[in-house]
Amino acid sequence: MKRTLFGWMIGTLVLCALVVFSSVALSAEFSADLIQKTAGMTTKGKVYIKGNKMRMEMDTPAGKSINLMDIGTGLMQMLQPEQKMYFEMETPEAGVVKTDEALDKIADKKHVGTEKVNGYKCDKYEIIYHDRSLGKMSQWFSKKLNYPIKIIYNGPQGEMVVEYKNIKQGKVDSSLFEIPPGYEKMKIPGMGRPSY
What we know:
Layout: H1 2-19, E1 27-38, E2 41-51, E3 53-60, E4 63-70, E5 75-80, E6 85-90, H2 100-106, E7 107-117, E8 120-129, E9 136-142, E10 147-155, E11 158-169, E12 184-185
């Protein structure tokens, strides 16, 4: 059970890293249904976006998982509601890209057209990492939301598709991005913020 849960957390970390790309710090506030397809499996959930913060709620084989991400700091907090526990970890450097200039250092980004995705006009980009072992990505970026609403990533573990549907713009409660009272912090060796 723990191995399954931990594996799913790492998969979710990869998912968040994909979403955290340049020019999202001033995104609109919105919520949406989240559809993730990978390894022949479809997982559904909800996503909430407010500025540089993101909350994902997903029903996984290991139970419900809630993930909080702060793009500004690169900190991810993974909550397990059934156990009322959470742990923190940093996202990989390749995932937290805050500007196009920073992206240029690790990948080539090319505008390949404009398409409508779930009612939103999107600029489509192809992103190919300089380190070919990291794979490549197609991203549909909504200017109205200032956020990517569809991503197809082809990497070492195969293809992953992430898409936001039933998008609802509007104020998102700040409390959704905080650890609820009564949760205990877990410590996992080798993960989390480094101590100096």
